[in-house]
Write a structure and sequence with these properties.
It contains no helices and 4 strands. The termini are far apart. The chain is globular and about 50 Å long. It has 100 residues and is an all-beta fold. 0% of the residues lie in helices and 12% in strands. A hairpin with a 2-residue loop joins β3 (64-66) and β4. It has a two-stranded antiparallel ribbon with strand order 1-2. A two-stranded antiparallel ribbon has the order 3-4. It has one domain.
Length: 100
């Protein structure tokens, strides 16, 4: 198992893992990340008010590798995030009286 490293601790919105060996061109890696997302209690882009829920930026993203190397920035409330997106297999558990 790979151990996450949090470079911005105590901020926990960014982490990386060190691979046992570099990936060569054409190689691939499957990663499974288990996590729980909890909504803020303020009704903003991501949050809730009563029975109204706004989901934004709730899933993990892979950092972009740009001209200056890896671009990983912590999540900040007023900002937009940069990322390349992949495929996600998501399971949502909701109370029976909620509509999705």
């Amino acid at each position: 198992a790979l151990t996450p490293v949090y470079p911005g601790a105590p901020d926990s919105t960014v982490f990386y893992v060190e691979l046992p060996a570099p990936l060569e061109a054409g190689d691939s890696l499957d990663a499974v990340i288990d996590w729980t997302a909890r909504l803020a209690t303020e009704p903003r882009r991501q949050g809730r008010a009563g029975r109204h829920y706004n989901w934004a930026h709730w899933y993990p993203r892979i950092a972009v590798y740009g001209a200056d190397g890896w671009e990983y920035r912590p999540h900040i409330r007023p900002g937009e995030l940069n990322g390349t997106f992949g495929r996600y297999d998501v399971t949502l558990e909701l109370p029976a009286d909620h509509v999705l």
